[in-house]
Task: structure prediction
Amino acid sequence: MDFDFLRQTLLLLVAGVPLLLQLAFFSIAAGAALAVLLALMRLSGNPMLDHAARSYVFVFRGTPLLVQIFLIYYGLGQFPEIRQSFAWPFLREPYWCALLALTLNTAAYSSEIIRGGILSVPFGQIEAARACGMSRSLIFRRITVPQGLRVALPAYGNEIILMTRSTALASVITLMEVTGIASKIISETFRAVEVFICAGAIYLILNFAISRAIALLERRLSPQTREPAAPANVPEPAR
Amino acid sequence: MIDYVDLMGFGPKGWGWLMLQAALMTIAVSGTAFALGSALGALIAWARIEGNRLLRIAADAYTTVLRGIPDLLVIFLLYFGGSEALTALAHALGAKGFVGVNAFTAGAIAVGIISGAYQSEIFRGAYQAIARGELEAARAVGMPRWLLFRRIIVPQALRFAIPGLGNVWQLALKESALISVVGLTEILRQAQVGAGSTRQPFAFFITAAALYLVLSTLSGWGFQRAEAVGMRGVRRS
Amino acid sequence: MKLSKILAAALVASMWVISGASAQPKDWSTIKIATEGAYKPWNFTDSSGKLIGFEIDLAEDLCKRMKAKCEIVAQAFDGVIPALNAGKFDAIMAGMNITDKRKEAIAFTQTYGRTPSTFAVLKSNALAKLPEAGKVYSLNADGVVAAEKSLNDLKPMLKGKVIGVQTSTAQANFLEKYFKDVIEIRQYKTTEQHDLDLAAGRVDAVFASISYLKSVVEAPENKEMMFAGPRYGGGALGFGVAVGLRKSDPELLAKFDAAVVAAVADGTVKTLSMKWFGFDVTPVR
Result:
């Protein structure tokens, strides 16, 4: 056990964590926004919107993320039309390509999760709200979102952990997040197993922290599953 | 458009045959991985249900670790570290020399191990969906454990597991694309070779995406059919 | 389920896995050689997926001399040394240069080919005007002073540029050593990937061996590409391409060495070199 080497490797790998977190955070956030849009499209009742959203989800869930990354990075870069367009300053950089691919991918999965959450709200509540004259946006904000969020959270938490793992694929388009740095170290020291074990440890710690945070959020959102608070010391009423 | 047909067709310059062969390789490696994952998943599920404390902790650690690190790392670790481990095992069993593991075996084992973690969850959930009463009754009449497993648990658990297994199969199909980074000539690797050779990455990666879509759609239909067969006679609410 | 049944199943499974693997005899009558398969014209694949190239032909010749049966397999370049040490194959012939760093991990035979490395750029890029185009510098002890001076002269023009290079190569080490804080180095898994990005304008230049870049620059679809700047060899860029072997196999090293020296001496290397490169890469002694 060469602890010295392991320690040095860990220090080098940790430098990749900020990029990893950036990629994960922004793709999840942007993906969530797109996912809400997609979910609403599917629930809108308009057959064209529904079909468009379903096709999007079908394509992005049916193909591997790695293929999507290569398509966006190398595939789009092939066309002179794209290279001269306004999008090129972004698509030129591997960072934005990776972010785009991750966002589009997570949006597809998340839209199904969010749709499930929205549909889980008992229809009776929606009917009652409409009967009281609540506007659609008010219903969405006050009835659907709080309850839907609670149902969707476990599955969405899973998705967040999956996305954090998926950022490792950005290393195949030259991005130096943790896996990219690990590959570079191996190409210089030829000690593959030790370096990858260090990298794995970093991912495990990160994922552990994230799943704890999500579990905490779940508990806060579901008061009925918490233990009852200790009974307050109510003084006997005076006889 | 004509260029695309030329490129992907089955003519002398066409890459069509190579892409189809690669698709067969994808099916082969995903299938092997899935089968391995089923065996592992059943083992882990059993450890979590019936095992003693030590087994349960080990099973939990297995699922936690494999769902917490990127699939890419598992594949790399097995590819580089696996040969050393297997060589050691072979030496212990009396073989001589080095034991080399090719990319197919390393990839299938890697994806299989990851798949096992997911499948164990599915099997565990499916087992818990079986009516307790049936298990109690079987034990009450003195059914031996193996018969109980074979006749009561497996048929019913499989029926409940099919939707979840369908999902895990799709996952295995997509994870097989990662094995391209250790050199296995499945769909994505073939697409990369073609793209580099002809400087037409878009055509090749779109074809790769289309192939995966076809595979995943066909699998989806297959599993829907299996579910219909499995749920025959079960009253649905 | 009885524990014994599980153990039996596991044993059977591991037997199956091992049978999917292969054990190598130590008499070296069969040798497994790894190459990359994506480094034209040293080693690449034709449209049917078959491995061809200078090193494939040379490997067949060397094996004939060693009276051994050779199997050539493809392996990604950045993992080839760990894979060799893990026992996946017995030798590496992948356009791999002898460098001090690599000598710490594996053993090398005598070199069978030596070419300098240079930059390739798009004609429209500012770097097309790099000075001293085509001038050859040696980074070995005899010429390192002049070479390092020319490298320093390049720095102002290179500042802030993005240069692509294949990961794990001597060229990558060279860029890291001399231009680390001057340029942004992008490391790619294969040379084809950095060529694609050069064509797309994502990198200002790529840095690779002339023997490889010649086939790229001369390809009809790459009319926009050209060589730029001086050419460097030796030192951090290695002392020539040779066969890589495990340090624990000295007998195999001796066999390969004898074969390589013979192939260089009787002109086989030169013939193959003219066939694949159009120029002679035989190392000058």
Notes: The interface with chain C takes residues 13, 15, 18, 39, 43, 46, 79-81, 83-84, 86-87, 89-90, 93, 95-102, 104-105, 109, 145-146, 149, 181-183, 185, 192-193, 195-197, 199, 201 of chain B (CB under 8 Å). DSSP finds nine helices and one strand in chain B.
